[in-house]
Amino acid sequence: MSNTEIPTRERIEEAINSSLKMLYTQDRDLLNQRGLEVTINAKLACYIQSHLPEWNVDVEYRREGDNPKCNSEGKEVQPDIIIHQRGPEGPNICAIEAKGHWNDEGRAIDKGKLADYKSAQGYTTAYFIEYGSKKASLQAI
User: Which of 11, 63, 75, 130 is deepest in the core (most CB within 10 A)?
Assistant: First the structure.
Protein backbone atom coordinates (compact mmCIF):
# COMPACT_ATOMS: atom_id res chain seq x y z
CA MET A 1 0.00 0.00 0.00
CA SER A 2 2.95 2.37 0.43
CA ASN A 3 3.06 3.01 -3.33
CA THR A 4 -0.60 4.01 -3.40
CA GLU A 5 -1.25 7.63 -4.31
CA ILE A 6 -2.90 9.64 -1.56
CA PRO A 7 -6.48 10.44 -2.58
CA THR A 8 -7.38 14.04 -3.30
CA ARG A 9 -9.77 15.99 -1.11
CA GLU A 10 -12.31 15.74 -3.93
CA ARG A 11 -12.05 11.95 -4.08
CA ILE A 12 -12.39 11.68 -0.30
CA GLU A 13 -15.44 13.96 -0.25
CA GLU A 14 -16.99 12.02 -3.12
CA ALA A 15 -16.43 8.74 -1.25
CA ILE A 16 -17.94 10.13 1.95
CA ASN A 17 -20.93 11.74 0.22
CA SER A 18 -21.67 8.59 -1.80
CA SER A 19 -21.35 6.53 1.37
CA LEU A 20 -23.73 8.81 3.25
CA LYS A 21 -26.30 8.38 0.46
CA MET A 22 -25.91 4.60 0.74
CA LEU A 23 -26.28 4.80 4.52
CA TYR A 24 -29.49 6.83 4.28
CA THR A 25 -30.88 4.52 1.59
CA GLN A 26 -29.93 1.14 3.04
CA ASP A 27 -29.77 1.74 6.79
CA ARG A 28 -32.58 4.16 7.57
CA ASP A 29 -33.68 1.87 10.42
CA LEU A 30 -30.37 2.51 12.23
CA LEU A 31 -30.65 6.25 11.69
CA ASN A 32 -34.17 6.28 13.15
CA GLN A 33 -32.91 4.76 16.41
CA ARG A 34 -31.29 7.16 18.81
CA GLY A 35 -28.00 6.36 20.48
CA LEU A 36 -26.45 4.10 17.85
CA GLU A 37 -23.67 6.41 16.66
CA VAL A 38 -20.91 3.78 16.86
CA THR A 39 -23.03 1.30 14.88
CA ILE A 40 -23.93 3.97 12.31
CA ASN A 41 -20.28 5.02 12.04
CA ALA A 42 -19.28 1.39 11.48
CA LYS A 43 -21.77 1.06 8.62
CA LEU A 44 -20.56 4.34 7.12
CA ALA A 45 -16.95 3.15 7.38
CA CYS A 46 -17.86 -0.03 5.44
CA TYR A 47 -19.38 2.06 2.65
CA ILE A 48 -16.35 4.39 2.56
CA GLN A 49 -14.07 1.33 2.39
CA SER A 50 -15.91 0.18 -0.75
CA HIS A 51 -15.05 3.52 -2.41
CA LEU A 52 -11.42 3.56 -1.23
CA PRO A 53 -10.42 -0.12 -1.23
CA GLU A 54 -6.69 0.61 -1.31
CA TRP A 55 -6.85 2.28 2.14
CA ASN A 56 -7.76 1.12 5.64
CA VAL A 57 -10.99 2.63 6.99
CA ASP A 58 -11.29 2.03 10.73
CA VAL A 59 -13.75 2.99 13.47
CA GLU A 60 -12.59 4.16 16.91
CA TYR A 61 -8.97 3.32 15.99
CA ARG A 62 -6.60 4.49 18.69
CA ARG A 63 -3.17 3.30 17.68
CA GLU A 64 -0.23 5.14 16.16
CA GLY A 65 1.91 2.20 15.16
CA ASP A 66 2.58 0.35 18.43
CA ASN A 67 1.72 3.38 20.59
CA PRO A 68 -1.56 4.98 21.63
CA LYS A 69 -2.82 7.73 19.32
CA CYS A 70 -2.46 11.04 21.21
CA ASN A 71 -3.52 14.63 20.67
CA SER A 72 -1.22 17.66 20.88
CA GLU A 73 -1.51 17.60 24.70
CA GLY A 74 -0.45 13.94 24.93
CA LYS A 75 -3.95 12.71 25.81
CA GLU A 76 -5.08 9.44 24.18
CA VAL A 77 -7.70 9.92 21.46
CA GLN A 78 -9.74 7.79 19.09
CA PRO A 79 -11.39 9.46 16.10
CA ASP A 80 -14.83 8.12 15.13
CA ILE A 81 -13.61 7.06 11.67
CA ILE A 82 -10.22 7.30 10.01
CA ILE A 83 -8.89 6.63 6.54
CA HIS A 84 -5.23 5.70 6.70
CA GLN A 85 -2.59 3.07 6.23
CA ARG A 86 -2.07 1.11 9.43
CA GLY A 87 1.37 1.13 10.99
CA PRO A 88 3.87 3.66 12.29
CA GLU A 89 4.62 5.16 8.87
CA GLY A 90 0.98 5.86 7.95
CA PRO A 91 0.03 7.99 6.20
CA ASN A 92 -3.00 9.38 7.99
CA ILE A 93 -5.42 10.57 5.31
CA CYS A 94 -8.73 11.58 6.88
CA ALA A 95 -10.27 11.86 10.34
CA ILE A 96 -14.05 11.99 10.82
CA GLU A 97 -16.11 12.87 13.87
CA ALA A 98 -19.88 12.34 13.66
CA LYS A 99 -22.91 13.15 15.79
CA GLY A 100 -26.56 12.27 15.49
CA HIS A 101 -29.08 15.11 15.51
CA TRP A 102 -30.45 13.62 18.75
CA ASN A 103 -27.07 13.96 20.53
CA ASP A 104 -26.90 17.17 22.56
CA GLU A 105 -23.12 17.09 23.08
CA GLY A 106 -21.33 20.14 21.76
CA ARG A 107 -20.24 20.10 18.14
CA ALA A 108 -17.46 22.60 18.83
CA ILE A 109 -15.62 19.97 20.90
CA ASP A 110 -15.58 17.50 17.99
CA LYS A 111 -14.55 20.20 15.53
CA GLY A 112 -11.69 21.14 17.86
CA LYS A 113 -10.63 17.49 18.03
CA LEU A 114 -10.56 17.35 14.24
CA ALA A 115 -8.35 20.43 13.97
CA ASP A 116 -6.01 18.85 16.52
CA TYR A 117 -5.92 15.54 14.61
CA LYS A 118 -4.73 17.44 11.56
CA SER A 119 -1.96 19.24 13.41
CA ALA A 120 -0.89 16.51 15.87
CA GLN A 121 -1.46 13.39 13.75
CA GLY A 122 -0.83 14.79 10.27
CA TYR A 123 -4.26 13.99 8.79
CA THR A 124 -4.52 15.71 5.43
CA THR A 125 -8.31 16.12 5.69
CA ALA A 126 -10.88 16.16 8.48
CA TYR A 127 -14.68 16.23 8.42
CA PHE A 128 -17.52 16.68 10.84
CA ILE A 129 -20.72 14.80 9.98
CA GLU A 130 -24.10 15.47 11.53
CA TYR A 131 -26.58 12.67 10.98
CA GLY A 132 -29.82 14.56 10.37
CA SER A 133 -33.29 13.06 10.39
CA LYS A 134 -33.54 13.16 6.58
CA LYS A 135 -29.93 13.58 5.42
CA ALA A 136 -26.45 14.16 6.74
CA SER A 137 -24.39 17.32 6.59
CA LEU A 138 -20.67 17.15 5.86
CA GLN A 139 -18.36 19.95 6.97
CA ALA A 140 -14.67 20.15 6.13
CA ILE A 141 -12.48 21.27 9.02
Answer: 130
